[in-house]
């Protein structure tokens, strides 16, 4: 197998408006769900038909981490369906493409009405919590032995696996999955954020997580001058210890 390093094609892709991406498919509990498709719905006016929320910004990035669009995207109104997901299981996000380099991370939030997510936007709720993150990771094919998490996703056919915490209470949730492009992170406002949300119903959880103790706001958890947002991405990866922006992933209480 021939592996292509994203940085090798980095320079030619940065300037292209098509050089972005979005999650085009989710796989949860053995079932696949196609997301809202900006390419086939270019006017962005057709309502989503599945579990994924509307992408009002299409495949383009968010640049202001304090904007309400950082929650799930621009005009990310609720979708009509929910996917059944077992707590402790692994779900998979498949991106249509991803040419940039940077970290990957995922948040969740319960939907407060306890029935569905039809009336929950999440922009002012302090109920978000990060469930996973990956920044600079071991990578055998790089001379330094390190690379960005997005290279791992690229090698896996633009797929990323996410483990749902076992300690959740059963009920409706938003899953917020995001990649970040760091090629311009050396200037304030240069980082690019690609958040998107899917609606799920969690079952089989142990209900041991105290969200009141760990919850954060989105926007708010990621700041424009976070060390994981504003830094020199051109330095060798061996020169610094990178932490993804925002809070650290939760750790389920031992039972």
TrEMBL record:
Similarity annotation: Belongs to the polysaccharide monooxygenase AA9 family.
Cofactor(s), by name: Cu(2+)
Record-given protein name: lytic cellulose monooxygenase (C4-dehydrogenating)
GO MF term set: hydrolase activity; metal ion binding; monooxygenase activity
Subcellular location: Secreted
All residue ranges annotated as the Auxiliary Activity family 9 catalytic domain in the record: 20-235
Superkingdom of this protein's organism: Eukaryota
Major place of residence: secreted
Reactions catalysed: [(1->4)-beta-D-glucosyl]n+m + reduced acceptor + O2 = 4-dehydro-beta-D-glucosyl-[(1->4)-beta-D-glucosyl]n-1 + [(1->4)-beta-D-glucosyl]m + acceptor + H2O
Entry coiled-coil feature ranges: none
Keyword presence, Signal: yes
E.C. designation(s): 1.14.99.56
Organism per entry: Ophiobolus disseminans
Keywords: Carbohydrate metabolism, Cellulose degradation, Copper, Disulfide bond, Hydrolase, Metal-binding, Monooxygenase, Oxidoreductase, Polysaccharide degradation, Secreted, Signal
GO biological process, one term: cellulose catabolic process
Signal peptide: 1-19
UniProt cross-references to InterPro entries, sorted A to Z: AA9, AA9_LPMO
UniProt GO cellular component terms: extracellular region
